Prior knowledge:
Oligomer: single chain
Amino acid sequence: MDKKNAMRAGAVAAGTTLMMLLMSPPALALTRDDGDDPGPGLNVMETLGLYVAAPIVLFLVIAGLVMVLDKSKKQA
């Protein structure tokens, strides 16, 4: 009986996801809107720096601050 409920829940989740995908309109990214003024594109190094290196550095800074400022007593 438990397997039947799991299958039903999976079918409902898959059906809901499929319906949402089918009913959502496309982004229409190729058509320009009035007042659109996109800036220059990013090169590969700028993209990697912005979306890969910056989050890693930010994570390391926050983790370092948490470890340095941790006021709990260490158990030895």
